[in-house]
Design goal:
Helix content: 25-40%
Strand order of the largest sheet: 1-2
Number of helices: 2
Oligomer: single chain
Order of helices and strands: EHEH
Strand content: 5-15%
Number of strands: 2
Distance between the termini: 45 Å
């Protein structure tokens, strides 16, 4: 089986350099993406968000994995679920308003 062709358009990573390596800046990146989409940008095909149940990250404690906090990443720092939902809602609102305009419902 061959793989489907890759999209020439990028997904935007809301982490790392775009968030200045601060997971709490991911909502600001989403706000910027939303502004770009609302202004007519059509080359962003998706976003990548570091997300988990609870915010932040943790190292495995000396007591071992059983002492880990539930729902907190042990790799990259993440926004919490409520923040993730808010970010996705913003993207969905922009997508819906752009779609309405493009099909003529908002004119």
């Amino acid at each position: 089986h061959s793989l489907p062709p890759l999209s020439p358009f990028p997904a935007c990573a809301c982490t790392d350099g775009n968030s200045q390596k601060n997971y709490q800046n991911q909502p600001k990146v989403i706000d910027d993406v939303c502004a770009q989409l609302a202004a007519g940008e059509r080359h962003i095909t998706g976003v990548m968000v570091e997300s988990h149940i609870n915010a932040g990250r943790q190292d495995v404690p000396p007591e071992g994995p059983s002492a880990l906090k539930h729902g907190v990443s042990i790799t990259d720092a993440c926004v919490d679920w409520a923040t993730t939902v808010d970010m996705l809602d913003k993207l969905n609102q922009v997508r819906a308003s752009v779609w309405m305009y493009e099909v003529g419902c908002g004119r």
